[in-house]
Design brief:
The complex is a heterotrimer of chains A (about 280), B (about 300) and C (about 625).
Chain A (H helix, E strand, L loop, with lengths): L1 H12 L2 H23 L31 H37 L1 H15 L3 H11 L4 H12 L1 H15 L2 H8 L4 H38 L10 H9 L6 H35 L1
Helix pairs in contact in A: 2-3, 2-11, 3-4, 3-6, 3-7, 3-9, 3-11, 5-6, 6-9, 7-9, 8-9, 9-10, 9-11, 10-11
Chain B lengths: L1 H28 L12 H10 L6 H13 L14 H36 L3 H16 L2 H15 L15 H27 L2 H8 L4 H38 L5 H11 L2 H29 L1 H6 L2
Chain C lengths: L3 E11 L4 E12 L4 E5 L6 H9 L6 E10 L2 E2 L9 H14 L4 E4 L13 H12 L4 H14 L5 H5 L8 H13 L5 E5 L7 H18 L2 E6 L2 H7 L2 E6 L2 E7 H6 L4 H14 L16 E13 L6 E13 L3 E5 L6 H9 L6 E6 L6 E3 L13 H12 L4 H14 L16 H13 L5 E5 L7 H18 L2 E6 L2 H7 L2 E6 L2 E6 L1 H6 L4 H9 L19 H4 L28 H5 L5 E3 L2 E3 L2 H9 L17
Helix pairs in contact in C: 3-4, 4-6, 7-18, 12-13, 12-14, 13-14, 14-15
Classes of the chains: A mainly alpha (about 280), B mainly alpha (about 300), C alpha/beta (about 625).
Chain lengths: ~280, ~300, ~625
């Protein structure tokens, strides 16, 4: 285990994109976890006497029109974004990998059927589904994740299927079968470890997409319901006072952008690493 | 080719059917009646629901809706008396389509050029700055960009109009904020595709036979590198339609996106349903056309259909 | 006056940390009209040097050179660190040299042609790049060029895409492109390595003819000494980027000076020797068969057309304990499908495969890079069969792994490494160890040495021989290389289009091939030795080349007839009957041949089986 961590660490530091992305992401994660826990105010606590205040020591980012502390609300919102991002990554990752490996490994009619289903799900922009789901179910993080996961796994399934199809034709796979390995072992010990690179690349790009979707929905008004705050809600709330207090809108925008950029940096870095290894072999 | 076309068409129709069904039942699952609220009494609400056919069994409503849909009738708005969904679409579609089309053209043009430049430039600074640009372009959400542009160019600098499309300059900011993300994606796609092509033997061969570099790029490499870019046009259409939700409401453009957002706020279910179905049709159609085009551009596929 | 003169060529590759010198101080000259051979193993820098001359190397390669002159004109690349202007000047100058004064042909004809551009345009654009002419004139010239390289119906071919042509045809198109500018010098970089034996012979014939007829000089680059020897009078030997020896082909073969050249020549010569079998091993007694394959067939459906292609049709053979059966055939003849049928990876559509040994049939594969899981240590990969099939403890398993590594010439501590740390030859040793660790009785070797360098080939073959002696296992040895098969096998079978057309002991089959295809294959095979003028020795590099043209077959095994003998369309002896029905296997003594020519003999002399020494020569085959 220690060896793996050390290896992963060295892997990250080897690429400046990956290193900076990881640093920013770790920072966001830390603040999103610690700020709501440690801060003296809660994200919903209103303070009528302290409305629309500017930055100060007690309120780092100032307060909004209800006197709520923006610093706490922003990091609380970032926490929800991260939750949505990681939740959808996990669910889409498992679904996509399973779906793609079954389709790729079994082939034939089952493969046809599974991939046609993915095609049908893919044909419509997922945001339309998500909006309907948000309207039909309760407006919370769970619904957002559900909506994102309905179509989010198809891209990964396609990648995994392609990799499995390519790898299963390779001779080491035949050798394993000659050695008496069964399907489960071939998939877990031989195929999936070799497909790990593309899977990770796909997942690292899935996370920012999910975070974007959540922020967008909240901005449009079908996302996380009040009093819970998400970065999209914060931006929408501050929009009405955009001209008077632009900073109320700029802080959540800044945090959202840093979060998304850090994930994109990680994605690009991982992609280069994986591609580079393929090239040099 | 014919086989593939039929298969693709069938997938598209099936996707459309699934979308219509899912959208219909999801809207019926939404909590509350659209006519509740205000000071309407129970009796009035019930009467109105009766009149709109909401008291019938669900499957019959579904059948009626499908039947009407085949005739091109998307129903009437619950919240705007006497206005049909088709009228709303007819009013909003031109603005959305024009802005979307301009954004697609801008993205395709700049994305392709930037991608070629990034892949083939020998200067590290050029490659690095374009890469940084695509990173920012893909990372900053379109509604954030639209807000910042409106705040910066419209409110603070007062350079460009930020409301409506009454004058040509009014298109600049919406189109720009819509086009940035697809431009970044196309740049990246183009650059990756060209970098892959650069590794190929035939490029070396083309140089070895004395072809000029420009001809090698245009006549050989782009011919193969175009395909992934073209493939992206389908997803880009989907992105632009949904992207218009935020951008149109920020720049107050009378398009479908704003109607959608308003209908969400009003809980105008038939309008939500109708707009969802319409946008689904558009996206599925664009996807179908680009897929067929891509297949047709592949000589192996074209030969197989003879 | 030399045509091309290269002085002190250095090429260095800049990969992230390490700097690697690919070519060091290479100097040589090419005289007008001369065919110069460059021989060296993979990684010896031979291709890199050729590309450096034409300025085709990527940015990360640093090329420095004292001087390169072509016909007196200076084409020296700018030194590393030169400014952009001089680079651009050089590039502009080279655009006039490439394709016009120096033509080049690459190894892989499929990837060196752009898949989405029609063949005709790829030729005409070359013509128009060097000469101002109308599109129509360029088209006419292109058709003429295609005719010159031996492609019939040039007009029709020009409208096709590369994927619609066979491998040999693609290489001919590449040659047409290289010759389009009427160059003074042609650089052919492994032009026949990716091709089948019979097609290789056709291309080499053509190169030889074109060099003689046009007086064009040629640099022929190959890893195969036999290819070089077939065409070149003078040759260079490269090792690790250094020119180790230079001289005429005769000198190289008879009196090699450098240790490396000696090794190359010796290993090549050893492949030509008849095999030495150990006397105490009982070979292939009847009734003691380990594997009995009886009339197996297997078809695949191709694409969406629903047409089924028979990859293997009615193949029968037996392998006894401790025996080796060699199978020879060109690519696409169904030998790999047959291997899968024998190992049980595929089940036959018809016929039976009976294996009387215990355990599974194991296999050694062609590509040592694809046959080891890159994410598994060598130790884990070797222990896998033990883990899955026996109840050995972990210690016992690693003990066995160490033993196997030692036996195959590796070190026990290699078990902890990943496959990436090994060279191709070492990987093939690991694969052999993996195949043997479960103690199988039969090992299928599917082109086990094809992708290896000549000297490594010899080592791997030695290892296989030693293992067979020690453990008395049987091999089904599949290869396209007649010499390699001959060295190991007690019996050989020649495969064509899914069926075995001839089988017997290698000595008799090689000396007196009966089936026309076997004859063609043997005629196309290159022998090891310098070219000798005027002496017909059955190999291609002699004046006998054209008189032996009877055995030189045309075309490729691409389109098979629906009925009759699959070889009939290419066969010089095809009769009317061959187009109608499929010849069955006729048994004559220890040999079996599927050809009507032999059948007539067998029919007229029913006791032929007893007099197997009499070959059907009187029928003129």
């Amino acid at each position: 285990m220690r060896r793996w961590i050390r290896k992963g660490w060295a892997w990250c530091l080897g690429n400046p994109l990956l290193a900076s992305g990881t640093f920013l992401f770790a920072l966001c994660l830390l603040l999103a976890v610690l700020v709501p826990v440690c801060a003296p105010y809660s994200y919903a606590e209103q303070n009528a006497g302290f409305r629309n205040a500017g930055s100060s020591v007690s309120h780092l980012f100032g307060t909004d029109k209800f006197g709520r502390d923006i610093f706490v609300r922003v990091w609380y919102g970032a926490g929800i974004s991260l939750l949505v991002g990681m939740g959808s990554c996990l669910i889409c990752g498992v679904t996509g990998t399973l779906w793609g490996s079954v389709a790729g490994y079994r082939g034939g009619r089952l493969d046809m059927l599974l991939m046609r289903i993915a095609d049908v799900i893919d044909a419509v922009p997922s945001l339309l589904y998500v909006i309907l789901i948000m309207l039909a179910f309760e407006a919370n993080a769970g619904s957002v994740v559900l909506g994102i996961c309905i179509s989010g796994w198809t891209g990964l399934a396609r990648v995994v299927r392609g990799e499995i199809q390519r790898l299963k034709m390779q001779e080491f796979c035949t050798a394993a079968r000659l050695a008496g390995a069964r399907t489960g072992r071939i998939l877990c010990a031989h195929l999936l470890p070799n497909a790990a690179g593309p899977i990770i690349v796909n997942l690292t790009f899935l996370a920012p997409k999910a975070i974007f979707t959540e922020a967008f929905l909240s901005f449009v008004g079908v996302g996380i319901a009040a009093p819970a705050a998400s970065l999209g809600t914060l931006i929408q709330d501050a929009r009405s006072q955009m001209l008077l207090y632009p900073s109320q809108m700029l802080y959540p925008i800044l945090v959202l952008c840093v979060l998304l950029l850090s994930l994109h940096l990680i994605g690009e870095g991982v992609e280069r690493r994986v591609a580079g290894r393929k090239k040099t072999r | 080719m014919l086989r593939y076309t039929c298969k693709r068409l069938a997938t598209g129709l099936l996707a459309l059917y699934v979308l219509v069904t899912a959208a219909f039942f999801l809207t019926r699952m939404m909590p509350g009646s659209p006519f509740q609220g205000g000071d309407a009494t129970e009796a009035v609400t019930a009467a109105v629901e009766e009149a709109y056919g909401l008291k019938e069994p669900l499957w019959r409503q579904y059948g009626t809706y499908l039947g009407n849909l085949l005739k091109g009738d998307l129903g009437i708005s619950y919240k705007k008396p006497g206005v049909t969904v088709r009228q709303v679409i007819g009013r909003g579609w031109p603005a959305t389509a024009l802005v979307g089309f301009l954004a697609v053209v801008t993205a395709a043009l700049f994305g392709t050029l930037l991608g070629i430049w990034q892949a083939l430039s020998k200067r590290r600074t050029v490659r690095g700055s374009i890469f940084l640009g695509t990173l920012l372009g893909a990372g900053i959400p379109n509604f954030v960009l639209a807000l910042l542009l409106a705040l910066g160019f419209g409110v603070k600098l007062k350079l460009l109009p930020i409301a409506g499309l009454t004058e040509p300059a009014g298109y600049i900011l919406p189109v720009f904020s819509l086009a940035v993300y697809p431009t970044a994606v196309i740049t990246k796609t183009m650059c990756h595709a060209l970098e892959d092509e650069l590794e190929k033997e035939y490029v070396k061969m083309a140089r070895a036979k004395g072809l000029k570099w420009r001809r090698t790029v245009v006549g050989h490499m782009l011919k193969n590198a175009w395909i992934p870019v073209l493939n992206y046009i389908g997803p880009a259409a989907a992105f632009l339609l949904t992207g218009s939700f935020a951008v149109e409401s920020i720049f107050t453009i009378p398009g479908l996106g704003r109607e959608f957002v308003n209908s969400i706020a009003n809980r105008d279910y038939t309008l939500i349903l109708g707009l969802t179905v319409f946008m689904g049709v558009v996206v599925i159609g664009v996807n179908l056309v680009t897929d067929l085009l891509c297949a047709w551009l592949n000589p192996a596929v074209r030969r197989a259909c003879r | 006056m030399s045509l091309l003169c290269v002085k002190d060529l250095h090429v260095q590759f800049h990969e992230r940390e390490q700097e690697e010198e690919a070519v060091r101080r290479l100097s040589f000259t090419v005289r007008p009209g001369e065919v110069l051979g460059v021989v060296g193993e993979s990684g010896s820098g031979k291709s890199t040097a050729m590309q450096a001359i034409l300025g085709l190397l990527p940015e990360r390669a640093q090329v420095s050179c004292r001087q390169i002159t072509l016909d007196g004109a200076d084409i020296t690349p700018p030194p590393p660190g030169a400014d952009r202007r001089s680079r651009r000047m050089y590039e502009r100058k080279m655009e006039g040299v490439r394709g016009c004064r120096i033509g080049m042909v690459f190894q892989e004809p499929l990837s060196s042609l752009n898949p989405s551009v029609k063949v005709g345009r790829q030729i005409t654009e070359t013509i128009r790049a060097h000469r101002k002419c109308s599109k129509k004139a360029a088209k006419e010239r292109a058709a003429e060029l295609l005719g010159m390289v031996g492609i019939l119906e040039g007009e029709m071919r020009m409208r096709q895409y590369p994927f619609e042509l066979s491998g040999g045809m693609r290489q001919r198109v590449a040659l047409a492109i290289a010759l389009a500018g009427e160059p003074r010098l042609l650089i052919a970089d492994e032009p026949t390595t990716a091709l089948d034996v019979t097609v290789q012979a056709q291309i080499l014939d053509f190169l030889k003819r074109i060099a003689e007829e046009t007086g064009m000089a040629m640099i022929l680059v190959s890893h195969d000494l036999r290819v070089i020897a077939a065409l070149c009078r003078r040759m260079l030997v490269l090792k690790d980027g250094v020119l180790v020896e230079e001289g005429t082909a005769e000198q190289m073969f008879q009196n090699p000076k450098h240790e490396y050249t000696r090794e190359l020549v010796r290993h090549g010569a050893r492949l030509d020797e008849p095999p030495k079998f150990v006397e105490n091993v009982e070979y292939g007694k009847a009734g003691d068969s380990l594997l009995a394959v009886d009339a197996v067939s297997r078809a695949f459906s191709r694409g969406g057309s629903g047409r089924r292609i028979e990859a293997v049709r009615r193949v029968s053979f037996q392998i006894g304990r401790g025996e080796t059966l060699g199978l020879v055939g060109e690519s696409g003849c169904g030998k790999s499908t047959l291997a899968s049928l024998v190992t049980g990876m595929l089940s036959p559509d018809g016929g039976t495969v009976q294996y009387h040994g215990e355990g599974r049939v194991q296999m050694v594969f062609q590509d040592p890079y694809a046959s080891l899981n890159p994410r598994m240590t060598v130790g884990d990969a070797l222990a896998e069969p033990l883990m899955l099939n026996t109840d050995m403890s972990k210690e016992e398993r690693s003990q066995r792994v160490r033993e196997m590594l030692l036996m195959t010439g590796l070190r026990p501590e290699d078990a902890a490494k990943y496959p990436q740390a090994f060279s191709g030859g070492q990987r093939q040793r690991i694969c052999i160890a993996r195949a043997l660790i479960a103690e199988p009785r039969l090992v299928v070797c599917d082109e086990p040495v094809t992708s290896l360098d000549v000297t490594v080939q010899a080592q791997i073959l030695e290892l296989l021989e030693r293992v067979q002696r020690e453990r008395q296992i049987s091999y089904l040895f599949i290869s396209h290389d007649l010499q390699v098969v001959r060295r190991l096998s007690r019996r050989v079978g020649i495969m064509y289009a899914g069926s075995i057309v001839e089988s017997g002991e290698p000595e008799t089959v090689y000396k007196e091939p009966w089936h026309p295809y076997t004859r063609a294959l043997l005629a196309a095979a290159l022998t090891h030795g310098p070219q000798r003028g005027g002496q017909c020795n059955g190999s291609m590099h002699s004046t006998g080349m054209y008189s032996a043209g009877m055995h030189r077959i045309k075309g490729q095994a691409a389109d098979l007839p629906e009925r009759g003998c699959p070889f009939a369309p290419r066969c010089a002896y095809a009769m009317e009957r061959c187009g109608r029905e499929m010849p069955e296997m006729y048994r004559i003594g220890a040999r079996e041949v599927a050809c009507f020519l032999v059948h007539r003999k067998a029919a007229s002399q029913p006791h032929i089986g007893a007099q197997s020494a009499q070959a059907p020569h009187e029928y003129g085959i």
